[in-house]
Design a protein that fits this description.
Length: 555
């Protein structure tokens, strides 16, 4: 089969004005970025249309390092819905350069189910990631300057909480010291870098509903703690306006198209293992303004992205999905069924059935949020009809709808079954209003414990001393009513990435908290998870190249 980038180059792209016209967006309001990309003003959101649209979340079982294919399924579902005559629009996240040049090589779907132009989307796109990086680091520079310029007045902070970000995997920058050298170089401080998807600015961009809300949230960003224990925020420096100026263009969602010219909004890009893992509220609502069926996804397994989609995004944005698709693959099920990694592509009915425990746990979790679930079998070339039949029969036994997705190989034609099942379930058995795992009024420890025990299956939650100290700070500053965003490994329900399947009654350790006062959530750091990933031994960067003027190696 052809590579993703070869398929992308052969696809017939429509001018972006024609893609917009499909869903009733006039050319006059578009801000084009070349022939095939445009920004759409968020002011076109129509809440009366949003209320009538059918929102569908695509999530997955616990992933393998080979991935599960949520984005491919999301795009495939949109293609399938278009094939059966439905007005479908996608709302997806933007890829990060870190994974593109590290493990993944790209994150714009695959095969004949991609969003295009894939090279631009995977690389610099419309500059949203750069805007987030610049805005975050501008605050860092302004904070350092404020400390330097006001030190003669006796001003200092007991604790500085704001770090730096960059959209590159660079383990060497996790911990640094700034201000070394002569006094004119600034105040000496310990600092470090997170990756841009973990930036609070990214979270704010993804949760803000408009320009006014963006400014309010930026003003509330907690930068440090004064010696009297009070908060020092961006508002105290008086620079929120300049940060909003850097993000003004980034606030509007990006319109692109699929391999079959279906409209897609691609906007925002937090990871689900270290952040909340969802595209922007603005892009979702814009898509719902123009589409009868809107497909969005949440990162990694349902224990991460989907939990945060419901408990954070839906809670704050008032969204109520009509249905949740849980994606499963034979290789993922087999890995969680105890089959050695090197053998998961081989037929193994026993290992497949053992892996159903992981699938069933995710299905029950989604149902606990009030969701109607469809299990999607994401088909790979090595899968057999016999194994697909086993998965189909199991879904029948547990009482959930099932459909195959073969959009990777066949485009929209390979997702017609999935589209029909989704439409039928929404018409006859739509989800109930979202039921959250915890209440806003629960204390921070209780919120973490409810997610860890109810969603992950933990027996006890251990809060290390640094985490307990941070809880006291959170409570004293009045941030304890925010939802929690747990940062943990994506490869297990537990905080141990090698603990596959469905571990139960395990100890779940929280070692620290990060206060995201502007994003209005508390990030709990579990186990050894890092907010700045490292590069693998053989990064994808070794495969990416430019040959005869064409980018190669993206997948």
């Amino acid at each position: 089969m052809k590579t993703d980038i070869e398929i992308a180059h052969e696809a017939h792209l429509q001018p972006i004005k024609d893609v917009a016209a499909q869903i009733g967006i006039s050319e006059e309001i578009l801000e084009p970025y070349g022939k095939y990309i445009a920004k759409v003003p968020y002011t076109t959101i129509d809440e009366s249309k949003v209320a009538k649209s059918n929102l569908i979340l695509v999530t997955a079982i616990t992933p393998t390092k080979a991935g599960i294919g949520k984005t491919t399924v999301s795009i495939g579902l949109a293609l399938g819905l278009a094939k059966i005559g439905k007005k479908a629009v996608l709302a997806l996240r933007e890829p990060s350069l870190g994974p593109c040049f590290g493990m993944k090589g790209g994150a714009a779907g695959g095969g004949y189910a991609q969003v295009l132009p894939m090279e631009k989307i995977n690389l610099h796109f419309t500059g949203d990631f750069h805007a987030v990086t610049s805005a975050h680091n501008m605050i860092s520079a302004l904070l350092d300057n404020y400390l330097y310029q006001h030190q003669s007045e006796g001003f200092s902070l007991k604790t500085v909480l704001w770090k730096r970000v960059m959209d590159v995997n660079d383990r060497n920058l996790r911990n640094i010291v700034t201000g070394l050298g002569p006094r004119t170089n600034g105040v000496v401080l310990e600092s470090g870098f997170d990756i841009t998807p973990a930036s609070e600015i990214m979270a704010i961009l993804c949760l803000a509903k408009d320009q006014e809300d963006l400014r309010r949230r930026i003003e509330n960003i907690l930068l440090g703690i004064r010696h009297d224990g009070t908060a020092f925020t961006v508002k105290d420096m008086g620079v929120a306006g300049s940060i909003c100026a850097l993000l003004m263009d980034a606030l509007n969602p990006n319109l692109v198209q699929t391999t079959e010219n279906t409209p897609a909004f691609v906007h925002g890009g937090p990871f689900a293992n270290i952040a909340h893992g969802c595209n922007t509220v603005i892009a979702t609502r814009t898509a719902m303004t123009y589409g009868d069926y809107v497909i969005t996804e949440a990162g990694f397994g349902a224990d991460l992205g989907a939990e945060k989609f419901y408990d954070i995004k839906c809670r704050k944005a008032g969204l109520n999905p009509k249905l949740t698709v849980v994606v499963a693959t034979t290789q993922g099920l087999k890995m969680h069924g105890g089959v050695p990694l090197e053998d998961i592509k081989k037929p193994n009915a026993e290992g497949l059935r053992e892996g159903f425990k992981n699938l069933d746990k995710h299905v029950r979790n989604m149902q606990s949020f009030g969701q109607t679930v469809v299990v999607c079998f994401n088909r790979y070339a090595f899968d057999t009809d016999e194994e697909m039949a086993i998965v189909r029969e199991h879904c029948k036994e547990i009482g959930v709808a099932f459909a195959e997705n073969n959009a990777f190989m066949e485009g929209g034609n390979g997702a017609v079954e999935l589209a029909n099942v989704v439409v039928d379930e929404i018409a006859n058995n739509p989800s109930k209003p979202v039921s959250f795992q915890y209440a806003d009024t629960d204390d921070v420890k209780t919120k973490v414990e409810k997610v860890a025990t109810q969603i992950y299956g933990a027996g006890t939650v251990i809060f290390q001393p640094a985490a307990l100290a941070k809880i006291k700070m959170i409570e004293s500053l009045g941030y304890d009513k925010f939802p929690v965003c747990i940062a943990k490994t994506q490869y297990s329900f537990s905080d141990d990435p090698k603990c596959y399947g469905v571990p139960t009654d395990f100890e779940f350790t929280i070692r620290d908290f990060v206060i995201s006062a502007g994003a209005e959530m508390i990030v709990a750091i579990a186990g050894d998870i890092m907010r700045m990933p490292g590069l693998p031994r053989v990064p994808q960067a070794e495969k990416i190249d430019v040959v005869d003027g064409q980018i190669t190696g993206l997948s």
